[in-house]
Specification:
Layout lengths: L1 H70 L8 H7 L5 E5 L6 H14 L5 E4 L12 E6 L16 E4 L9 H20 L2 H6 L1 E4 L12 H13 L4 E5 L2 H10 L7 E5 L10 H17 L8 E6 L4 E5 L23 E4 L9 E5 L12 E11 L4 E6 L9 E4 L8
Parallel strand pairs: 1-5, 1-6, 2-5, 6-7, 9-14
Antiparallel strand pairs: 2-3, 3-4, 8-13, 9-10, 11-12, 11-14, 12-13
Helix pairs in contact: 4-6
């Protein structure tokens, strides 16, 4: 009896173990099935992601090929349209009018407006009488990256300067024309390699052409038309001169791409006397050496006569009398480069330091800067000059004009 009871208990125990074993196997099988499905799902998702990534890369490559094929390397900042705009020529505005009509003020306003819009327009100053970029007697150009401060003036970063040497174009008309031509050609070369500057355009400030003669003089109008043509100006702003506006519209009517616009004389402009203009030139020269607030320290240097070569442009006959027709008189060549002996005549003169390597290249070369002659010792053959910085001059070739200044 006891034996039967023991067998029955053992049987129940074994049956329970088998039941638990089957349950465990069933659960394990279910877990394995779920894990397999998850793995299959994970592999499937991974393949799907890889497929999506491949499609994205393919679309990017196709897009890149399309942009490259259409616009070559004119893609920048993610927008080909911006580069397409920048490949075009920006507006080239020339401001003309009589003296004391607000040409310089209007030029600065236009430049500041363009700079505020993110452009870097080029400022071209043809006013040799006053000079907004550098000393008077020069024509110059410089890019404008920031709005112009009304007190500090135009910020300068390596301006392109050509030295004319006089404060009126009547002193040497042919030389003035050549200087304008050289400046315009150099700017065109720079624009050909800089699409951003080309698209930003330029503002050209002119002088009150031929003081006291008037625009009806063919000589004066010729200089103005040459500037419009050389710089390819497409907008001519005429300030306070109805007659000049009519003349320019009549002369430029064949050029359909040039717009002539008349503007009223700027308000608040005051007429300046000749004496005031002379003082203003002196202030501009002083500012070049000492700064606007006397914050610069120019250096006094001494050089031997033999270490310097001084030249003047204009003078000397064009041809000997033997080569001229009978009765004809030899005329002075306005573009001839003539060597100058260093003497007391150079005292208080403002000379340009040319980048030219040979005298023949003086007219076609821009200048590195200017020096002011403070003393000439003929006996010791020493010349003392004031320079913006210490050290040797970048060139021994100096250009002399009629520009002078007496430091006070």
């Amino acid at each position: 009896m006891e034996k039967q009871r023991t067998e029955k208990i053992l049987k129940k125990i074994m049956e329970k173990k088998r039941t638990e074993k089957r349950r465990t196997e069933k659960i394990s099988k279910k877990n394995r099935k779920e894990n397999g499905e998850e793995q299959r799902s994970s592999r499937k998702n991974k393949k799907l992601k890889e497929k999506i990534e491949k499609r994205k890369k393919k679309r990017e490559i196709e897009r890149e090929i399309e942009h490259t094929w259409k616009f070559e390397n004119f893609r920048r900042d993610g927008g080909w349209w911006l580069e397409q705009i920048r490949q075009q020529q920006g507006p080239r505005v020339i401001v003309v009018g009589p003296t004391d009509c607000g040409k310089s003020a209007l030029s600065r306003m236009l430049l500041s407006w363009a700079a505020k819009q993110g452009w870097k327009p080029t400022f071209v100053d043809l006013d040799i009488g006053q000079g907004s970029i550098t000393v008077p007697g020069s024509i110059a150009a410089t890019p404008i990256e920031m709005p112009i401060d009304p007190v500090e003036g135009i910020p300068l970063e390596m301006p392109l300067v050509y030295f004319y040497g006089h404060t009126t174009p009547t002193a040497n008309v042919d030389l003035y024309k050549l200087a304008v031509k050289e400046l315009a050609q150099t700017l065109e070369k720079q624009f050909s390699g800089n699409s951003e500057s080309r698209a930003a355009g330029m503002v050209i400030n002119t002088m009150g052409w031929i003081e006291g003669v008037g625009y009806e003089n063919p000589f004066s109008l010729q200089l103005l038309l040459q500037a419009i043509d050389m710089f390819n100006a497409d907008v001519v702003l005429v300030l306070g001169q109805e007659k000049l506006c009519s003349m320019l519209k009549d002369v430029l009517k064949s050029k359909t791409k040039v717009d002539v616009v008349k503007l009223q004389k700027s308000g608040g402009v005051v007429s300046r006397t000749q004496k005031y203009r002379q003082k203003s030139r002196g202030y501009r020269i002083r500012e070049y050496f000492y700064g606007l607030a006397n914050d610069l320290s120019p250096h006094s240097n001494i050089a031997n006569f033999n270490d310097l070569s001084v030249y003047r442009i204009g003078g000397g006959p064009q041809a000997p009398r033997s080569a001229l027709p009978i009765g004809a008189e030899p005329a002075a060549d306005p573009t001839r480069v003539v060597p100058v002996n260093i003497s007391q005549d150079l005292l208080h003169g403002v000379l340009a330091v040319s980048f030219a390597k040979d005298p023949e290249d003086i007219i076609s070369s821009n200048v590195a800067g200017f020096i002011y002659v403070t003393d000439v010792d003929v006996q010791r053959r020493k010349l003392t000059y004031l320079a913006p910085s210490a050290g040797e001059l970048p060139s021994k070739i100096l250009i002399l004009g009629t520009l002078a200044w007496v430091e006070t």
